[in-house]
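Model it.
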Amino acid sequence: MSVKSPMSTWSCAAFVLALATAFATGTVLARLAFDDGVSIFTLNMCRTLGASLTTAVFLLRRRRLPALPAAVAGTAAGLGLLITVYTYCLFWAVRIM
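Modeled.
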């Protein structure tokens, strides 16, 4: 049994390509920012602000907030903390390269 996607195959491929490009560009821009003396904290705050604004735009377009059960919300918060630590370590490694 297959599930029909709301996006076409080409749209999904374009989305994945854009996402991969965004990740690669983010690391390159981080290196350039570090060369100009930007701190890891400042870079993470700018990245988080951009992600938050993008998420807000998508949620406003849907005109509906996502509802998370308490157990899932706790797991999501834990994953968010894990991603924060991972990002800090990644940018720290980029800075010392």
